[in-house]
Amino acid sequence: MPPRRAASPVASSRAPSPIIEDDEPSFDTVDELQRHGINVQDITKLKSAAINTICGVIMTTRRQMLKIKGMSEAKVEKIKEAAQKISGSAFSTGVEVADKRKKVISISTGSKIVDGMLGGGIMSQSITEVYGEYRTGKTQLGHTMSVVAQLPAEFGGASGKVAYIDTEGTFRPDRIRSIAERFGVDGNMALENILYARAFNSEHQMELINECSARFAEDKDFRLLIIDSIMALFRVDYSGRGELSERQQKLAQMLSKLSKISEEYNVSLTDTHCAYEA
């Protein structure tokens, strides 16, 4: 079955823009390594460790790759060398960097005031954190953006799909339908374009993030990843003062992974955070 495209406003007289191939994220998957002498078994091992692209290989340290079962120093070095050949020089001119920045996608929050504060909306290749006290609209914003991201660019969207990781069980399909109707979008189509998962502990949350990486490598239509909320499960799993250091270390690793994913696949990443969560 072909992937479902972005939801289209059904009540608008303006035709939605189609997804243009040149605007899609461009990246090489690790399968490209096979053309440079890396066997399929080792490529499969990389994928099992959530390393799905050539950029992902470069972003991963040799030390981390050696932790993958069946990886030796010789194999890791060979993979690293092949990835460098595929990606080319790590240095770019200022003009090339400027051209790359043109690919950054901006997704509206649904509020002109908030968009103005953010310089136009939620940007891809970066993490945007929404924080506030309990019941201040953080989850509502996540629901709204899940719909807006599917709209064409002229409506403030990115013509793409959304991945949504829910750590507190607050995702409500009926709210998505209601928001979709407000934007003139078919509710069921909007829900079809949202890939949802419920995380039950901080380790599971990391596993789901790794799965998102694999999904993004397979399907270039994804434009937004939402985590609501990023700290809730850490606060439960690491509750004592003696565990604070480990909690911060695990959180830092997760944020590093998310930052790499946002740049790797040119997706916008939004997480919510309750103000009293330290």
Structure keywords:
278 residues; alpha/beta; DNA polymerase, domain 1; Rossmann fold; 5-stranded parallel beta sheet; two-stranded antiparallel ribbon; 7 strands; 43% helix; globular; disordered N terminus
Describe the structure.
This protein has a 5-stranded parallel sheet with strand order 3-7-6-4-5, sandwiched between helices. A two-stranded antiparallel sheet has the order 1-2. α7 (138-148) crosses α8 and α10 (202-218) runs parallel beside α12. The longest helix has 21 residues, at 244-264. It is globular and about 55 Å long. 43% of the residues lie in helices and 13% in strands. Residues 1-6 and 8-22 have low confidence and may be disordered. It has helices at 40-48, 54-59, 62-66, 73-87, 94-101, 112-117, 138-148, 173-182, 187-192, 202-218, 232-237, 244-264; strands at 106-107, 122-123, 126-132, 161-166, 194-198, 222-228, 268-274. The chain is an alpha/beta fold.
Task: Provide the helix percentage.
Answer: 40-55%
**Could you please say which CATH topology of the largest domain applies here?**
Rossmann fold
Structural class: alpha/beta
CATH architectural arrangement of the largest domain: 3-Layer(aba) Sandwich
Number of domains: 2
Distance between the termini: 44 Å
So what's the oligomer here? single chain
Query: Helix count?
Result: 12
Report the biggest beta sheet as strand number plus sense, adding barrel if it closes.
Answer: 5 strands, parallel
Give the amount of beta strand, in percent. Answer: 5-15%
Q: Please identify the top-level CATH class of the largest domain.
A: Alpha Beta
